[in-house]
From TrEMBL:
Similarity annotation: In the C-terminal section; belongs to the 3-hydroxyacyl-CoA dehydrogenase family. Belongs to the enoyl-CoA hydratase/isomerase family.
Occurrences of domain 3-hydroxyacyl-CoA dehydrogenase NAD binding (ranges): 274-447
Cited InterPro entries: 3-OHacyl-CoA_DH_CS (IPR006180), 3-OHacyl-CoA_DH_NAD-bd (IPR006176), 3HC_DH_C (IPR006108), 6-PGluconate_DH-like_C_sf (IPR008927), ClpP/crotonase-like_dom_sf (IPR029045), Enoyl-CoA_hyd/isom_CS (IPR018376), Enoyl-CoA_hydra/iso (IPR001753), NAD(P)-bd_dom_sf (IPR036291)
Name of this protein: Peroxisomal bifunctional enzyme
One term under GO cellular component: peroxisome
Origin superkingdom: Eukaryota
The encoding gene: ehhadh
Complex formation: Monomer.
Length: 695
């Protein structure tokens, strides 16, 4: 973005840096087009002070025209709002995305935008942080003109055309917010209720509403004071640090590397023009939709005719709904269907998404290897099976990788790209690039049971079961986790996805055994503590929402409202009595420490094993795939915030109390990081490399 005045002097710098220390909000430097330089938050300031500069621009006697090309986000747009006119290129994007970084637009954005476009529209932009196109910005009244030509030329022409006109009516800070239809207080109360419900503990959206309310109810100067106070609170909060860490973590994971030395910048992806999906169950349908929405021609193969007919209808509906939401045409022409696997002969990449059964998947990989082009990439959407075993069924094992999507696959942002020991760097690069084109946060992970996400989750789930044995209820565990910021606690999630899912896996792993023994060995499997509680519920047909009861009661099969179940409480009491377990009072703090620190401990093991390249990879997986509250950065960032010595001390404490639970034994990497002074999370990758080289 550039700023121009009527006599063609360029006043606003094209690119400046430095910004936004909370104590220096009136001393901030000018932002670039993408807003303030997030890297410099908390560092020393540089460049001219932002807020006084915007005030000086607005107060000036020469007409100032902002010429907006590319992005005008955050401080970039705030600077433009200080100008008297704004001209945008048709491809420009504008927005105040501060909320996504745990902040609010604190260079006058929260005060000027509602004055310019009205309270409801400004609330929408500021609370969601969404970017708008130039066309929408024009419609909203944020910009005065949109051009398809050279924006600077258009701005200069415009500036000359308005030179000499009075500017008082162009100074947004002097406006009052346009009146709203209905009661202003009622509007803010309603918005605040919605925001608090959706924010689930995030403080920035709430502060954004408060700031806009100040714009609507206070004179500009007092509104600016309020904006500054609110920003000061946000700026020093852990939430802003977590969200800013997450911003860079998302970008860091695309620069993947593997322990064998393969790297993103040394591995060119293969071109992918046409893709196939095998299996049109829930996952296959979602994957096919996501691919078509990303513009890929997709061949979908389903051998069961009935399933194929149902899937065709469902996929078309999903595509149409998505298109309606986005205001574009549904890409129905991208889809073709077949019941014959030969239909994939000419595709560049296949994603297998059949039932989670190794025998079936092996057979499909043998067929794919025979049918597909020799250089086609063969990917599996398995959530836990050994990718290497599948690779060994094919002619070219180096072309096999895992692409682990999360349900619903066309909605969830996460993709774990799983490389086996034989996967080529090019295959990995291709799958990572395809994920990016599908709008996913793609994270490269090594091949091991459960990969990263599910491997860590196992430790967390186990603790939740143990806590029930020791005296907790599902309600107690869930409310502690929900209070932490998860949208649902573990037991509600389990009821939603079906208890039979985990039961099947435990049976396959030889853990869930038929019959209940009451002796001391009943709660020990494969040499470690085991809780059969989930298996016992499944044996009674309590699979969760679909059967009307699980860890909670739902009134009827398919019911969605969880209510505490007295039967379950008596069942737990009987179970404890039967196994000689004396219930004790468990507080929410213990729930969090046991569940989260066990999960984090497994995260350290994963880093130690080189299955994830760095803490950013794990954190993105948890934030984008497992509902970890975004404003808490992810499990490894959270561990760093809590303090590694404290996490270590609590794990030691719980391991002493439960020596039969290996998940609670602190991982040696955690010990070594603590011994090396607990470096900040951004330095762990380096520290781990150094520690590995010392071994
Ligand atoms: C007083 C208060 C004032 C004000 O209210 C506060 C603010 O303005 S808050 C700020 C409000 N502004 C925002 O929230 C905008 C945040 N930025 C974005 O949303 C996207 O970057 C954007 C849409 C602009 C471009 O997407 P794209 O084309 O896919 O490109 P990309 O995303 O891959 O980025 C390319 C490279 O640029 C880097 N980088 C980018 N922005 C910043 C930044 N602000 N800072 C530092 N670095 C930034 C990014 O890390 C990456 O580096 P690398 O080393 O190559 O990994």
């Amino acid at each position: 973005m550039g700023g121009f005045c009527g006599n063609k002097n360029i006043l606003a710098p094209k690119k400046c840096s430095g910004e936004a220390r909370h104590r220096g909000l009136t001393q901030n430097s000018a932002p670039g087009p993408k807003g303030a330089d997030i890297k410099e938050f908390g560092d020393s300031e540089s460049g001219p002070p932002l807020i006084p500069m915007i005030h000086a621009i607005e107060a000036g006697n020469k007409p100032m025209v902002a010429a907006i090309e590319g992005f005008a986000l955050g401080g970039g747009l705030e600077l433009a709002l200080g100008c008297h006119y704004r001209i945008a290129h048709s491809k420009a994007r504008l927005g105040l995305p501060e909320v996504t970084l745990g902040l609010l637009p604190a260079a006058g954005g929260s005060q000027r935008l509602p004055r310019l476009i009205g309270v409801p529209a400004a609330l929408d932009l500021i609370i969601t942080g969404r970017h708008v196109t130039a066309a929408e910005a024009l419609q909203l009244g944020i910009v005065d003109q949109v051009t398809d030509h050279h924006t600077v030329d258009a701005a200069v022409k415009f500036a000359l055309s308005v030179a000499g006109r009075p500017l008082d009516a162009r100074r947004i800070s002097s406006y009052s917010c346009p009146p709203v239809s209905g009661d202003l207080d009622a509007l803010f109360e309603e918005v605040m209720r919605k925001v608090r419900r959706g924010a689930r503990g995030a403080i920035a959206p709430v502060a954004c509403v408060q700031a806009v309310r100040a714009a609507a109810t206070l004179p500009y100067a007092r509104g600016m004071e309020r904006e500054r106070e609110l920003m000061a609170t946000l700026f020093t909060s852990g939430q802003a640090r977590a969200l800013q860490y997450s911003f860079f973590a998302q970008r860091a994971v695309s620069r993947w590397s593997t322990p064998s030395g393969a790297r993103w910048d040394a591995s060119a992806p293969k071109p992918v023009r046409k893709v196939a999906v095998i299996g049109l169950g829930t996952m296959g349908r979602g994957i096919a939709v996501a691919l078509a929405q990303a513009g890929f021609p997709v061949v979908s193969v389903e051998t069961q005719e009935k399933q194929l007919t149902e899937a065709k209808r469902a996929v078309s509906q999903m595509l149409e709904r998505g298109a309606k939401r986005r205001g574009v045409a549904a890409p129905l022409d991208k889809m073709s269907y077949s019941s014959n696997i030969q239909a994939v002969a000419d595709v560049d990449l296949v994603i297998e998404a059949v039932f989670e059964d190794m025998g079936l998947k092996k057979k499909i990989f043998q067929q794919l290897s025979a049918v597909c082009k020799p250089d086609a990439l063969l990917c599996t959407n398995t959530s836990s099976l050994d990718v290497d075993q599948l690779a060994s069924q094919t002619r070219n094992p180096e072309l096999v990788v895992g692409m682990h999507f999360f349900a619903p696959a066309h909605v969830m942002k996460l993709l774990e790209v799983v490389y086996g020991p034989r996967s080529s760097p090019q295959a990995l690069a291709t799958a990572m690039q395809l994920g990016k084109k599908m709008g996913k946060v793609s994270v490269a992970v090594g091949n091991c049971p459960g990969f990263v996400g599910n491997r860590m989750l196992k430790a967390y789930v186990e603790q939740a079961f143990f806590l029930l044995e020791e005296g907790a209820t599902p309600e107690l565990v869930d409310s502690a986790l929900e209070e932490f910021g998860f949208s649902m606690g573990f037991f509600k999630v389990s009821d939603l996805s079906g208890l039979d899912v985990g039961w099947k896996v435990r049976k396959e792993d030889g853990l869930a055994l038929p019959g209940v023994s009451t002796g001391p060995s009943a709660r020990i499997r494969q040499g470690r503590r085991y809780s059969p509680l989930g298996d016992l519920l499944c044996q009674r047909g309590r699979f969760g929402q679909k059967t009307g009861s699980g860890w909670y009661q739902y009134g009827k099969p398919g019911g969605r409202v969880a209510t505490p179940d007295p039967w379950l409480h008596s069942f737990l009491e009987e179970y404890r009595a039967q196994h000689g377990l004396v219930p004790r009072r468990i507080d929410p703090q213990e729930v969090l420490e046991r569940c989260l620190y066990a999960l984090i401990n497994e995260g350290f093991r994963i880093l130690e094993d080189g299955i994830a390249a760095g803490p950013e990879d794990i954190d993105c997986i948890y934030v984008f795939g497992y509902g970890w509250p975004h404003y808490r950065g992810g499990p490894m960032f959270y561990a760093a915030m809590v303090g590694l010595p404290k996490v270590l001390e609590r794990l030691e404490h719980y391991y002493r109390a439960h020596p039969d639970v290996p998940d609670l034994q602190p991982c040696s990497l955690l010990r070594r990081l603590v011994a090396s002074g607990s470096p900040p999370v951004q330095k762990w990758k380096e520290a781990i490399k150094k520690l590995h080289s010392q071994l």
